[in-house]
Amino acid sequence: MSTILVIAEHRRNELRPVSLELIAAAYGLKKSVDDKVLVAVIGSQAESFVPALSVAGVDEVIVVQTPIADFDPDIFESAVSALITAKNPAVVLLPHSVDALGYAATLASKAGYGYATDVFIAEYQGDELVATRGGYNQKVNVEVDFPGKSTVVLTLRTSVFKVLEGAANPSVSSFDLPVVQSRSQNKEFIEPGGANDVDITAVDFIVSIGRGIGEETNVEQFRELAETAGATLCCSRPIADAGWLPKSRQVGQSGKVVGSCKLYVALGISGSIQHMAGMKHVPTIIAVNTDPGASIFTIAKYGIVADIFEMEEELKNQLAA
Amino acid sequence: MNVLNMKRGKACRKPFDMGMPAKATDLVRLAIKAGDPYCAAAVHNIATGRDKRRLEALMFDKRRNTLLLARWEHTPASVLEAIANSSAGNGDSGVVIRLDKNPNATAKALSQLYVGQADVRQLNSDFTVLIAQHLHSPVSVLASIVQLSEDEQSLKAVSRNPAASAEVLSVMLERMANSKIIGVLYKNLAENPSTSTELLDFIYAKGDEYVRAAVIGHARCSQAVIDESVSDKDVKIMRKLAVNARVSSETLVNLAASHDVAVRCGVASNVASPEVLVMRLLLDDSCLVRRAIAARLDLTAASINALANDKDSWVRQWLARNPRIPRKVLERLSVDFEVDVRRAVARNTCCPVGLLKALAKDQSAWVRSAVAYQHKSPKVVMEALATDNNIDVLSGVANNPHTPQMILQDLAASPELDIRRGVILNKYATRKTLLPLLEDPYYLHRLMLVGSVRLKGKDKWSLRDDPDFQVRFMVFRWMASRLCESAVR
Q1: Are B261 and B242 contacting, i.e. CB atoms less than 8 angstroms apart?
Q2: How close does chain A come to B313, measured CA to CA in Å?
Q3: CA pair distance B140, B364, nearest whole angstrom
């Protein structure tokens, strides 16, 4: 029997959705029915997250009470380290997030655990755990194994592991936080830019505009179109650089990867490598461009060589009808 | 954290002595010495004789390099022509297909490919299709495809290509008159800007309602066809007529009574619509019609007042962007409860400075960001917005020509790459402000700096052995162009 330990993540008293993705990944790593998935939640209000974490696949929720509400790398490192010592898990799963990256490497390095970051496939090949991550700027997939390591710490990429459906009734236990001297102090929480805006990494239908729209005044008609169609309006870098749409709507290498998108309509986007890095994985890409040689057509499922303004007008007419 | 402490990575090749070259030949030899195919591509068009052959050997000795250069969007035209002329361009289908797809391929390169690929074309019509749709394809090649090709996809591609002349399109229509793809050809020709008025007249008489609608929307459509189509009751045709400025007032009045919203929207936005008709459409039930009116540049005071009180926020938003709006109306819209309306006021090119100062204190960061990007915003507003903590606001401050250099220098050290890029995009950022950004960890920023007019030659040349191949290419290309210009002078 082996144990898989998941460290749930929360911020500002809200459980982050990635916690449920980690549980799904942990469930996928079970080699037998005897294997256990333990979910630890660390924080001053840790107990309040127990109902949300009582989902399919979880055998036990461990509550670790801390004196402060906000994330602190020293406290988390100390708590997770003590949990590993006590529970002896074969695998520890953390989100690939700014919080986890604040302590995961130190945790693994100090105790000599196996360690891989930004993992998007975690599986057993025989008895050997293999983690797959990107390499060379996501151009190749790298398989990492951990010979001789009894415990492996993995940070998992978000929006990759499909959340399991259904509730469960796991046992709940508490775990005492070891004495720890924190070296940092939280002064103020500042919402990152665009935090009030929609999270484009979580939406499934995107209409995206590029240089082809020409002028700023033209942005409005595409915003109208997106709103009418029930889509989220996003853009390529030049549009955000000009301040025509918020940075939080920028897709690509210097913007965001639209991890949950299922339908991406690219209007007037030529398809630079930097932009495609943020959306090429989307299952259905519809590209509209006047240039039949535009790179975007190489990854589009449906390509339309047409004027985007005519398309916009026709789509609006169709939606209004 | 000062992000510029995170220097760019080390050069991927051994450094070699490269002072600023004084002559084109010196630069070419430095590129050869560097052994880098991208540097070689950057100077190819200024090289001659033996040096040119050495550069080509450097670029094309490995098939992988040839494939990369044939596909790369920045590969100079002279290099693409050299590939087309090389053995790879004549026999390697992988190379040929990349050249055909490359938007930078010149008419000369495409001609060479078309002539040189006769055997391959017979085996694979994809090559012909790519040439037939390429915007740089010479008329002679397109004419040859139209006269000789039996491939329907290639003929369809020519019919869509604006590079095809009216004569070529006419010949195609004649040749394909009885083919089964004639309907598609009619549609493509009706949308092709090169199609002549005579051909459009002919297509209008033959085509279905979609084709007729496309003909009416064509810039070269004859007045006779427009007049004839006025009696057509098909909604697709009515929509095209409604936006056409050559339609009479009487027709527009009739179209304004249409049950179709898109037709009424067309009339509402048509510059030829008389004022009385626009006033009547102000009362239209559809907010889409009123939105179309709000974007007009010839609004009367009465229309503006009616639109400023419209319950649809998009109407007020379109109005707030309208540069012809009087100050009093803008003031009223600047306190609208909808964020996007207030933002539209801040983005209005005629927004008074007093209003911008007030909007700079708006509770919404998206409104403050609009003020920050507004080129009319004065220095004092920029100084106030520089203390904001929102990334969109700070990016706007970084972009703005009125931002003091001291602030720009602080922003150039921001951990947010979007903000640093804003400084790079600011045409008024001085050399002193930009110099630290030469060490920016993001390659795109260093790439952009090669094009800066504020930096000195020696600053840009310092990027010659940059770890990123695109930056090295840009530096060598910039230097090649500079040496050519000085040689001409």
Answers
A1: no
A2: 11
A3: 58
Q: Inter-chain contact A220–B318, Cβ cutoff 8 Å?
A: yes
Angstrom distances, CA of residue B43 to CA of A304, B16, B30, B72, B469: 37, 18, 10, 16, 14
For residues A10-16, average pLDDT: 89
The residue whose two tokens read 């800007």 is B193
Put simply, the answer to whether A317 touches B239 (Cβ < 8 Å) is yes
Task: Could you please state the CATH topology (level 3) that the domain comprising A205-320 is classified under.
Answer: Rossmann fold (3.40.50)
Q: Residue A166: how many CB atoms within 10 A of its CB?
A: 7
Answer yes or no: are the C-beta atoms of B120 and B96 closer than 8 Å: yes
Contact assessment for residue A71 and residue A91, using Cβ atoms and an 8 Å cutoff? no
- Tell me: the pLDDT tens digits for B3-37? 555 555 544 444 455 678 888 999 999 999 999 99
In Å, what is the CA distance from A44 to each residue of A68, A76, B7? 6, 12, 39
ipTM above 0.85, yes or no: no
- B25 alpha-carbon distance from chain centroid: 35
Which of B262, B291, B425 shows the shortest C-beta gap to A241?
B425
Nearest to A218 by CA among B136, B422, B318: B318
User: How far apart, in whole angstroms, are the C-alpha atoms of residue A118 and residue B267?
Assistant: 55
Q: Which residue has the tokens 């700023």?
A: A216
The CATH code for residues A3-175 is 3.40.50.620
Query: By a Cβ cutoff of 8 Å, what residues of chain B touch chain A?
Result: 73, 101-103, 130, 133-135, 157, 160, 239, 261-262, 288, 291, 295, 314, 317-318, 321, 344, 347, 365-366, 369-370, 372-373, 389-392, 395-396, 399, 416-418, 421-422, 425, 442, 444
Give the N- to C-terminal CA distance of chain A in Å, as an integer. Answer: 61
Q: Is the pLDDT of residue B105 over 60?
A: yes
What amino acid occupies position B255? L
Give mean pLDDT, residues B306-310.
92
CA distance A265 to A255: 17
Residues A99 and A184 sit within 8 Å (Cβ to Cβ):
no
The b/e string for B388-417 (b: 16+ C-beta within 10 A; e otherwise) is bebbbbbbbbbbbebbeeebbbbbbbbebb
Give the dihedral of Cα atoms B326, B331, B334, B336; nearest 10 deg. -100
CA distance A130 to A112: 17
Tokens of B339: 């964020």
Mention every residue, 6+ apart, whose C-beta is less than 8 A from residue B224.
B201
From chain A, which residues contact B within 8 Å (Cβ)? 190, 192-194, 196-197, 216-217, 220, 224, 240-243, 246-248, 250, 254, 272, 274, 291-295, 305, 313, 316-317, 320
Q: Which residue has the tokens 């190379």?
A: B95
pLDDT (mean) for A49-60:
94
**Alpha carbon distances (Å) from A152 to A37, A58, B222:** 15, 19, 75
pLDDT at B117: 61
**Residue A289 pairs with which residues in a beta bridge?**
A305
The partner residue sitting opposite A247, judged by closest CB among B134, B318, B395, is: B395
Q: Is B133 exposed, middle or buried (0-12, 13-18, 19+ CB in 10 A)?
A: buried
Q: Which member of A243, A246, A294 has the closest CB to residue B399?
A: A243
pTM, 2 dp? 0.74
Amino acid at B189: L
- Spatial separation of the C-alpha atoms in residues B208 and B230, rounded to whole Å: 16
Amino acid found at B275 = E
Domain with CATH 3.40.50.620 in chain A: 3-175
Residues of chain A with CATH 3.40.50.1220: 205-320
What is the token pair recorded at A207?
């209409």
Is a pLDDT exceeding 90 seen at residue B93? Answer: no
At B1 the pLDDT is 42
Tell me the chain A residues in contact with residue B103 when contact means C-beta distances shorter than 8 Å. 291, 293-294
